[in-house]
Design brief:
The chain is α+β, with helices and mostly antiparallel strands. 27% of the residues lie in helices and 24% in strands. The protein has two domains: 80 residues, no CATH class; 137 residues, no CATH class. The strands form four sheets. A five-stranded antiparallel beta sheet has the order 9-5-4-6-10. A three-stranded mixed beta sheet has the order 1-2-3. A two-stranded antiparallel ribbon has the order 7-8. Helix 5 crosses helix 6.
Length: 222
C-alpha cells in the first residue's frame, strides 16, 4: 500500500498507530455503500487512494464511515473500533422521549447504569439501560445500526465534567424501532451476539413516537 499514500500520509498513519493491514485501495473512488461493503468484507477500516477531500485535495484517506481522518482526527477512534470487541447498548430517557445507541468495552450492568446517570446525555439524567449485547465487531455493529436510524437522529448536547459537548447518538424513536434496526443488521450481516440482555418488563414504557427529522421540522412517522 506504500505506493498509494504520500510521505505525509505515511507519517500520519504511523503517528495514529494505524496499521497498513487496515488500509483498503479505493482506486480513486469516494466512499459509497459498495465501497463500504467491500471494506467490510475485507476487514479494512481506512480507505486510501480515494477521491480528494473537499477541504484539502492532498487528503486521500477516508474512514469506513466516510470521514477524512486527516481533517478530523477524532473520527479515527471510531474506525479502529470497527473490529474490536465490546457491548452495544440501548438506553432510554422518558423526560426527553429519546433513545440512545451507545457502545462500551464494559458490559457490567451496574457500571453502564452509573455511566448513563452521570453523562446527562441531551441534558437528561433519567437514562435507563434497556438492552445490551456483546459483539466481536463493536464499531461495525454500531455504525450499521445508527445508519438505519439516521433519519431519527436528534441534535442535543451533553454535560460531561461540567462541559457541554455533542450528545452522541440520540434518536427520537421508540425502543421497538431501535430493536428492529438491531435485528435487521444482525440478519443482513449474520452477526453473532453473546450476553444479550433486555429489560422486557419496562421496554413498553419507552415506545416513543418515531419522529423523522427533516431539514426544517420533525415529522411523525405513520
Amino acid at each position: 500500500m506504500k505506493h498509494l499514500i504520500t510521505k505525509e500520509q505515511e507519517t500520519f498513519l504511523k503517528k495514529h498507530k494505524i496499521s497498513s493491514e487496515l488500509l483498503f485501495d479505493a482506486q480513486g473512488e469516494d466512499i459509497s455503500e459498495n465501497l463500504q461493503k467491500s471494506m467490510t468484507e475485507a476487514d479494512k477500516v481506512i480507505a486510501c487512494n480515494t477521491a480528494p477531500c473537499t477541504e484539502n485535495d492532498t487528503h486521500t484517506l477516508r474512514t469506513i464511515g466516510g470521514f477524512c481522518p486527516q481533517c478530523d482526527t477524532t473520527k479515527i477512534a471510531a474506525a479502529l473500533r470497527e473490529l474490536k470487541p465490546g457491548y452495544i447498548y440501548f438506553s432510554g430517557s422518558k423526560r426527553g422521549g429519546l433513545i440512545k445507541i451507545g457502545s462500551t468495552n464494559e458490559g457490567k450492568s451496574k457500571t453502564l447504569t452509573l455511566n448513563l446517570a452521570t453523562a446527562r446525555d441531551g441534558g437528561y439524567d433519567d437514562w435507563e439501560l434497556l438492552f445490551s449485547a456483546k459483539t466481536p465487531t463493536l464499531g461495525r455493529v454500531e455504525r450499521l445500526i445508527t445508519d438505519k436510524l439516521a433519519e431519527y437522529k436528534a441534535a442535543y448536547q451533553s454535560e460531561k465534567s461540567g462541559k457541554l459537548q455533542n450528545g452522541g447518538e440520540l434518536y427520537r424513536c421508540s425502543f421497538l424501532k431501535a430493536k428492529e434496526a438491531y435485528l435487521a443488521v444482525t440478519e443482513e450481516n449474520q452477526f453473532d451476539f453473546t450476553q444479550v440482555s433486555e429489560k422486557k418488563h419496562i421496554t413498553s414504557e419507552y415506545q416513543f413516537k418515531n419522529l423523522k427529522m427533516t431539514a426544517r421540522k420533525a415529522v411523525i412517522e405513520a
